[in-house]
Design brief:
By secondary structure, this protein is of the alpha/beta class. It contains seven helices and seven strands, in the order ααβαβααββαβαββ. Strands 3-2-1-4-5-7-6 form a seven-stranded mixed beta sheet, with helices on both faces.
Amino acid sequence: MPDAAPSPITSSFSFANGDELALQDALPRWRPGRLAQRLGFWREKQLIRKALKLAGEPTLVLDLSRITGLYWPVLAEHSSRVIIAAADGLAQFEARLQRHAPPQRERIRVLQTAALAIGLPDGAVDCVLCMRPADEDSRRTAFLRELHRVTRDTVILAIGTDRFDPCQRDLTTAGFRLVCRLDFLPLCAPRRLAVLRKFKA
């Protein structure tokens, strides 16, 4: 895997910092909100597994998730998969990393980077997993182009349901074709998961 120097933070897009996960961990387990979160996460894991299969079970995945370590156990279910976890800062990442089993930790690499200037060379990873919706119209195309640059093959991207149609146009402009869209909850979910395959624009 290529080594990359940390990049400065150059945009308002941000990656995981662990704060939201720490808040979730502090919630009492009996609270209804906690139960809803757990059910939502269970559904997310289902869809991510399906999306990874549609993407060809990639072995080198860049994780651009907003919550530190939330999807590492799902990504690590494939025994030969290596995870590059993007971060704005490293302190919370190191703390979260220690909470995972040693076999998982050995396959996780932390990359301090910015969203619009990811510190990896062209085609560095097999797949990018981005679970924070790409809904900012003004910066979406630039962000998608950066994902196109970094991935060798596929991207798994969360997209707000109400922004799906305009985002599809940007996907084509950025050099992707839609392989499949997966609804979190049919007809009522606030977002979808899109599996994208790269083509030369």
